[in-house]
Amino acid sequence: MIRTTTRAAGAPLGDSAHTDTFARDHLPPPEQWPDLCFDLPQLHYPSRLNCAAALLDGAIANGIGERIAVRGAELTWTYAQLLEQVDRIAHVLRGPMGLQTGSRVLLRGANHPMMAACILAVFKAGCIAVPTMPLLRKRELGTIMLKARVDAVLCAASLRAELEGAEGLPSTLLCFGAGASADALEALMAEQPASYTAVDTSADDVCLISFTSGTTGIPKGTMHFHRDVLAICDCFPREVLRSQASDIFIGTPPLAFTFGLGGLLLFPLRVGASAVLLEKLTPETLLQAIQQYSATVCFTAPTFYRQMTPLAAQYTLGSLRETVSAGEALPLATREAWQKASGLAMIDGIGATELLHIFISAAGAQIRPGATGKPVPGYQACILDGDGQRVGPGVVGRLAVKGPTGCRYLDDPRQLDYVLNGWNLTGDAYEMDADGYFYYRSRTDDMIISAGYNIAGPEVEEALLRHAAVAECGVIGQPDEERGQVVEAHVVLKPGVAPTDALVAELQEFVKSQIAPYKYPRTIRFLAALPRTETGKLQRFKLRTPVQGQP
Ligand code: 3UK
């Protein structure tokens, strides 16, 4: 019999190793936590657990110190070399930087082995990592530093300028990488011992505060424990992706986005595989890098796969074993085009910062095109109606999830919106079929209501993407006196296609031939590019409020 361990809300936490108790003091009250489930045997972690020690010292204990752990554009580190870097940084944090256990360290850097080492060092030293996306601006960084009461900063020298004058900037700041001065992190590392004994943290001590990349509103800090970091490694990559030691992981999501942190650092380390960490990738350079490094697993967003599709034939991609798409819904047209170009059946997976990583997905023969998949082993999912009641197959409702990880916002009343009766509500409208497959429809607040009809923007996008002239598109509801909202499409045309009135009419007729005619876009606007976040998500709100002076 499978042992089922469900931690009811309010279960006591283990003794914290943190002398600075800020994180635990600001966890949501226990009754507001989601239920946590530890059904899988691999999720039964010891009560004292340091995730960085489990990943790195564990690898050395397994005798793989000489295997390659991470590669950057200009350097390669074995597991033993990565461990040494991490240990020296951990000494710097607790020595010259004067940090306590439980201190929050803001991390700022593009994907690079040094950024990876800094994150792992913060975990190992019993501090709390607050990674930030490279493109964030001063005001956003200030909000994060104040909210997480950041004690120190480790920053790539090239990204330092944006911190200048930001609110909440602590005086303890070290730079690393090209362009850093003589008192940089590397100089202090050289003076430290090469080996560091991990802080004996509790499995439920916070080690990561990840801010949501939310397209609107004030960012929310999600708090994650040492055991959560291992739990994501032991669910999706183990049960769906089936990662193995011979894998070489590559992709675009920033390490400061949990999609990238898992896919490009934690998952490879958990199985003794290696990660290729490159910055500023484009569709061309990612394809080039897959070929150059013989990558076997690729993580990126749907639009990136769509842009790589027409270029794929120019590269040798035979090393690729699996490609993973997440961050946004994967249009069926993109899945099919990518499969034709690469020969690979894409693994779609929905994840969220609140749940740390992917919780619904499917691979190989389990893939049902059009569906995201089924709950990843370790997770459960269902569809709830507006009153919080479960609905059966074929009914669109609110996606609800629970598993070993779940939402714990840092001091934020929106905890009450995300967790309902122990379920995490992701804000997505989904539908389940009789076989338990989950189908994405839209974000719950993006459902277009026009003349009383519910229209999911992504369904109209899906139809438009099948037209030969369309490179990318975003569909939104625009306020309308008569109909409440009308469907409006924003279309990026393929190179060389002219944006004519005749094409507008043609696209409208095309949509009507693909899906129920009432869903067709009454307005079509042509854009040079769609507004996207650094994590690849379409910023629909920017399409709803056109910038002054633009068509
Ligand atoms: C949307 C998807 C349909 C969905 C993420 C993988 O995206 C991640 O986290 P975020 O907090 O956003 C979460 C929201 O993004 N979404 C993500 N993946 C899909 N919608 N199909 C998908 N495959 O609205 C979700 O609620 O930025 C993704 C791993 C870690 C992550 N943090």
Could you characterize what this model shows?
This protein is of the alpha/beta class. Among the domains are: about 210 residues, Rossmann fold (3-Layer(aba) Sandwich); about 100 residues, GMP Synthetase, Chain A, domain 3, CATH 3.30.300. Helix content is about 25%, strand content about 25%. The chain is built from 16 helices and 27 strands. The protein has a nine-stranded mixed β-sheet with strand order 4-3-12-11-13-14-15-16-17, with helices on both faces. Strands 18, 19, 20, 21 and 22 form a five-stranded antiparallel β-sheet that branches. α11 crosses α12. The N and C termini lie far apart (about 65 Å). The relative contact order is 0.10. Bound molecules: 5'-O-[(S)-[(2-aminobenzoyl)oxy](hydroxy)phosphoryl]adenosine. The site of 5'-O-[(S)-[(2-aminobenzoyl)oxy](hydroxy)phosphoryl]adenosine (3UK) has 24 residues, from α9, β15, β21 and β22. 5'-O-[(S)-[(2-aminobenzoyl)oxy](hydroxy)phosphoryl]adenosine binds next to α9, β15, β21 and β22.
